[in-house]
Fold this protein.
Amino acid sequence: MNKGELVEKVAAESGSSKADAGRCVEAILAVIEEELKSGGEVNIIGFGKFSVQARAAREGVNPQTGEKMRIKASRTPKFSAGNALKKSVSG
């Protein structure tokens, strides 16, 4: 499912227009993104938790040349599924 399909489903489920649903989806994604940028996390009980994970600097290997290289430290988004979501997916 892509974002357009998600907007259509949200519009159908909520009984609102696709334009309104699109604005809501965009707003939710923007709020999650801003919270993660500031180092926070978003916890939706039963669904899951969006957070930021720090990755330490490390040494890697260029797969094309085999040459060793240094990979800088970075931050990456992480999602942990909640119990209700895990149960609904597993059957």
About this structure: The mean pLDDT is 96. Residues 30 and 53 are 19 Å apart (CA to CA). The longest strand covers residues 48-55.
